[in-house]
């Protein structure tokens, strides 16, 4: 038993994986129905929160196994287990060493993996659970936020001679020295995608990675805020990355980035229904009309600050951003202009960071002996973003965004754009109105 | 990271360890007070049941570390964790595969080990937690009742260059293939003794194995039943084995047998007080007066059955014992006699086994076509045993036992003896009277 070979998921693996992507994407519609090939499924904490839910997951896995697939099932810890373990740790130590924290947290996934393997065997599906030690999921040594370096698949190959399903502990790995690590937020998604990537790199040709949670797929906009919000059949990696970066929560950015890098086809759907979910792929199939805007998302609870009449030019600005970073304030949108040696600066940040940010700026000004400047009280804002690969080729998108908002009397407090994204700052209280306006303008409502 | 070398704890290790025993035993009185050497401590589930109790254990470990000892601290799962996990398993599957059960249960000790390591670091004691994978605690493949084959100590040696205390998950091991196993009842005690044995075999000369629980040591008889029952300073392995086999519960037989085999000095005491505990050693120190009877114990809830006039001789008896074994009835004391081709048989068993035993005997008689025999209704009895190494050399012990009981009107329903043990069957309702009579007769009350 060694924790896997040290073979890296290098550029060759990447190339090889990418050649597979298109072929796999073409087949995508068939995959969840038919059998065959290697299916990687990931079930999140809410999907395995109780023994009953675990039995439900086992039934889903059995259906796929009966259809002929080999399954790797990656599980998170049951429900709020991880939170409970963190609370325990805080009770024994004010600042637990990260190495011990990961040793503690890694138990959560081992519990759910063992229970799911039991449930599967109870249903007559030969299954075995495997943890990070057994599989050799080797990571960096960044405890609580480790990066996967390699996964040993040789044991899995042996397992598939005896078992129909291998249940794998998500969220965790081991260092080359054998210490346990955890992968940080979205860790179990990352585990699942990494296993799929490695399988592709090792010559498996029919691989899909299915991410199950309590939401039935990826929506063009938040269905809790926009009535009739459309669920997407397909979305590209780029679009999904933008949406995740801008606040959508179904998939963590990191797992999407990994899927893009290795050409892993993702499928997101609900554990609790048979409703059709959403594919995340490299390119939309040609027969699918390319929408200009695929999704609209919103980042709430931000504050916009304006600092006027800062004496001097660039020096003061870089100084201000340095003290803001030191104060832990995460600056988002920035605009600045100089006139007659006086600088105007506007920026946004999470409202929780506002107090320390204002203090940091004022402290810097005082320390440098700068006078005559003024900082306005923060204004609560939201950043509403329209994302779409098609935006690249289409013209007039910005104009459609502006007029949709202005026709509803929504003031535009700031703008930023990228190739496939246009983001608008609006008053915090108008966020939902703004999302609805854009959803209607770009046909994201059914 | 491999699970340790395959070097066995073989006869050489045994010999080497035994040479150490006497020297270590001589020093025993000094050990818990002074520092130096390698201390293996084991804390049971009730000792680490809450974060507060874990912090208490950390304080105890810190005191020993501050006095200069290197510590290996073996922990059980917190409180009733293991029971909770078993209940979860039963909810997902009626008959969970033992391999998955061990995967599940092994998480309990990892939680408490990580938490204790956190608490120690919080107190400024450099400490690290280690699980069965990391240490290479290699066992047989009997899931749920595995036997330790070897423990890798090389990692521990490295650890002691950086840490004062290594916290080890008790109760668990891994197979040579890397599957998790658990050691069954008394498993964490066994883990601790095995680590001490291996340390002795590898040349450590100053080793003691301290078993902490919620009882302050080993008593000559049950302090809950005998007022003033004396706590022992010292007891031999042989006596402890007899007492454990006969029903005393402080130490599991298996760990005592292992300690005897490898000459590991054991020390049993309470986690919750500074009260002096009990040593378990090869021989009592010469300055200690060798008592004839060291302890009295009792096995309750037994039934005595008498079968009269069984036709034939040995054949029928062996047939009866075979069907009793098949029925899962655990027979304890047996007496039999033949007269004129008819056999008289008396035996005892746990009262829970009584119904199936009677059924099995009757079924056998019927199957064989035997007639004229009769089975009397079962009588509730208890087996009261006096144990002592000194019994071997002393005369008149049996007589003192009989007269002590008879003078109190306690009827003797059966007798069995070994070299260091005399066991008497009495009516179940007189068990406590009998224990008190013997405790008084042999001076086991303070």
Structural class of chain A: alpha/beta
* Helix coverage percent of chain A: 25-40%
- Provide the residue-averaged pLDDT of chain A: 87
Low-confidence stretches of chain A: 1-35
- Specify Rg of chain A, calculated over alpha carbons: 24 Å
Largest sheet of chain A: 8 strands, mixed
| Number of separate strands of chain A | 19
- Strand content bin of chain A: 15-25%
Number of DSSP helical runs of chain A: 13
Largest interface: A-B, 46 and 46 residues
Q: Using the alpha-carbon principal axes, give the shape of chain A.
A: globular
Sequence of strands across the biggest β-sheet of chain A: 3-6-2-1-9-11-12-10
Multimeric state: homodimer
> Ends of chain A: how far apart?
54 Å
What topology emerges from the helices and strands here?
2 copies of one chain form a homodimer.
Chain A: H1 11-27, E1 38-43, H2 51-66, E2 70-75, H3 81-92, H4 98-122, E3 127-130, H5 132-135, E4 137-139, E5 148-151, H6 154-162, E6 165-169, E7 172-174, E8 180-182, H7 187-201, E9 207-213, E10 234-236, H8 237-245, H9 253-262, E11 266-270, E12 278-281, E13 295-311, H10 314-326, E14 331-339, E15 342-350, H11 354-367, E16 374-375, E17 379-387, H12 397-406, E18 414-418, E19 421-427, H13 431-441
List its traits.
eight-stranded mixed sheet, homodimer, seven-stranded antiparallel sheet, globular, alpha/beta, 446 residues, 37% helix, disordered N terminus
């Amino acid at each position: 038993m060694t924790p896997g070979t040290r073979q890296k998921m290098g550029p060759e693996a990447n190339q090889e994986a990418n050649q597979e992507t298109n072929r796999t994407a073409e087949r995508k519609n068939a995959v969840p129905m038919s059998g065959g090939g290697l299916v990687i499924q990931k079930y999140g904490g809410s999907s395995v929160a109780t023994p009953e839910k675990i039995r439900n997951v086992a039934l889903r896995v059995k259906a796929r196994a009966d259809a002929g697939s080999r399954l790797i099932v990656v599980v998170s810890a049951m429900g709020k287990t991880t939170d409970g373990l963190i609370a325990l740790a805080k009770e024994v130590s004010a600042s637990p060493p990260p190495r011990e924290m990961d040793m503690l947290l890694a138990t959560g996934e081992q519990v759910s993996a063992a229970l799911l393997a039991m449930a599967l065997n109870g249903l007559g599906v030969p299954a075995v659970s495997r943890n990070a030690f057994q599989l050799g999921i080797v990571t960096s040594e960044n405890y609580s936020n480790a990066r996967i370096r390699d996964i040993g698949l040789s044991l899995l190959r042996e397992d598939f001679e005896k078992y129909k399903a291998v249940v794998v502990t998500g969220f965790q790995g081991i260092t080359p020295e054998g210490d346990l690590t955890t992968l940080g937020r979205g860790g179990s998604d990352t585990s699942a995608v990494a296993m799929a990537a490695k399988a592709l790199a090792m010559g498996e040709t029919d691989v899909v990675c299915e991410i199950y949670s309590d939401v039935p797929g990826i929506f063009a906009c938040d269905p809790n805020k926009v009535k009739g919000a459309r669920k997407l059949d397909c979305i590209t990696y780029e679009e999904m990355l933008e949406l995740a970066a801008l606040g959508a929560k179904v998939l963590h950015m990191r797992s999407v980035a990994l899927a893009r890098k290795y050409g892993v086809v993702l499928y997101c759907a609900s554990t609790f229904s048979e409703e059709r979910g959403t594919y995340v792929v490299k390119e939309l199939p040609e027969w699918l009309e390319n929408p200009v805007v695929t999704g609209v998302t919103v980042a709430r609870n931000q504050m916009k600050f304006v600092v006027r009449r800062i004496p001097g030019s660039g020096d003061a600005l870089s100084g201000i951003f340095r003290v803001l970073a030191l104060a832990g304030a995460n600056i988002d949108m920035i605009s600045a202009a100089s006139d007659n040696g006086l600088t105007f600066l506007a920026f946004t940040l999470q409202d929780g960071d506002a107090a320390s940010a204002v203090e940091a700026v004022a402290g810097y000004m005082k320390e440098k002996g700068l006078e005559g400047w003024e900082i306005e009280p923060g204004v609560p804002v939201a950043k509403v973003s329209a994302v779409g690969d098609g935006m690249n080729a289409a013209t007039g998108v910005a104009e459609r965004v502006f007029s949709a908002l202005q026709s509803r009397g929504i003031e535009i407090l700031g703008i930023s754009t990228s190739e496939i994204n246009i983001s608008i700052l609006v008053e915090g209280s108008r966020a939902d109105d703004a999302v609805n306006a854009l959803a209607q303008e770009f046909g994201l409502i059914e």
